[in-house]
User: Fold this.
Amino acid sequence: MTFFASDMHLAHERIINYTGRPYKNNEEMNESLIKNWNEIVKPTDTIYHLGDFCFASNYKNWEARLNGKIIFFKGNHDKKRWLYSATIKFADYRVYMTHVPPDNIPEGISLVLCGHVHEKWKMKLWRDTQIPMINVGVDVWNYHPVGIRTLLNELGKWKKEIVK
Assistant:
């Protein structure tokens, strides 16, 4: 199975107040995010983490506690040199992934996945196009990674709503 997440901000206590996360402290947030991740992501799953993984340089310690093969993207708080962006194909979609909602996307893209905006929005159209953009930040997915099937199902519902 394939999953997506962004903006976990492990070891970043100030993110609790900044985004209104429902945790008393950093330790509670970290443990809850790890538990939520491991409840749904199996060791054989692939997960694309689209930036702002952790606020400390000991990312390997956090990674070791999480299930799945993680493909990391660089966020504005990450110090590692991870991927900046990538394009993959799922179902009938050509999916562009990056941390910050992009100013430009490659030709032929039919879906954009990003993070960075935290709780501000879950789905919207990219600029003045018909290309949907989905925020995969944990803040809008109940502090869990989100599976590709769930994303595509939610996208289908959302498209029906915006056509009304």
